[in-house]
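Table 4 source record.
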Amino acid sequence: MPFRYQRSYCGPVQAVILDWAGTTVDFGSLAPVAAFTRLFAVQGIDLSLEEARGPMGTEKREHIRRLCALPRVAAAWRDHYGESPDEATIDRLYQDFIPLQIETIRDHARLIPGCREAIAELRTRGIRIGANTGYSREMMEPLALAAAEQGYAPDSAVCATEVPRGRPYPHMSLRNLIELEVETVQAGVKVDDTLPGIEEGLNAGLWAVGVAVTGNEIGLSLADWEALPPTEQARRRDSAHRRLLAGGAHYVIDSIADLPRCVDAIEARLARGEKP
C-alpha cells in the first residue's frame, strides 16, 4: 500500500470570524426582524416573527426572495395583488427595505454584554478578528460606526453583497481569511447565531461555533430574556443548543462572552492534530 502523507496543523487559532446581529451586537437579532415585518406590513401582508426569522443569516435580497416564496406569504400576496411576486417585485422590495433596515440597525446597535472584553482577550493572544454579515455595505456603515464608538472594530469586515455568493456559501469567510492573512483554514473559527452562518463556516473548512442565547434561535431582547423564569430560560437554551448542534456546529455557546474558553477547547484539539 503506498504511503499517504497526512498533513495536520497543530498550532493555535489564528483568526475568529464573527457575525454581527445576534453575535456581537443587537441582543436577540431584532433589527432584521423589525425591518422585514415593517416592509411586508407596508405591502398589506402580515408577516409573523417566526416567518421573518426563517431565512436569517442569508443576504437580505435573498432573504426577501425566500419570504416571498413561503406558501402562506405567496398566497396572501396573490390575494392582495392578483399575482405572485416576480423578480421586479423583489428588486423593488429590496430597495424599500434598505432605509428600513438602516433605521432599525441604528435602534439596535448596542454591543452584546461581554463582547468587548472577549475580543480584547482574544487579541491579547494574537488572534485576528474578522466579521461578516448578510447586510450590505450601506446597511453596515452606521452599525460599524456605532460599534467602533463602543470599542469594537474588526480587522476585516466583509458584506454579502461584496462576494459572488452569500451564506451558506463560504465566500465571505474565505475573503476574511485572505484579508487576515491566515496560514490555513484549520486555524480559523466562524462564530454565528444562524444555521446558514454555521454552514458557511463548515463550507469554508473552519471550526464552527453557534451562539444560542443572544441570537436568532431565541430572538429575545436582553430585558425579555432576563424576565423569563429560570426553567423557561433553560428550556429555550437547550432547544437552541440542540438546533445549532444539529446544524453542524462543533460547539455552541450562550454568548460571545463564552468564546475565549471555547477557543481554548479548539486549540487543545488542534494541538492533538485534529481538524474541523
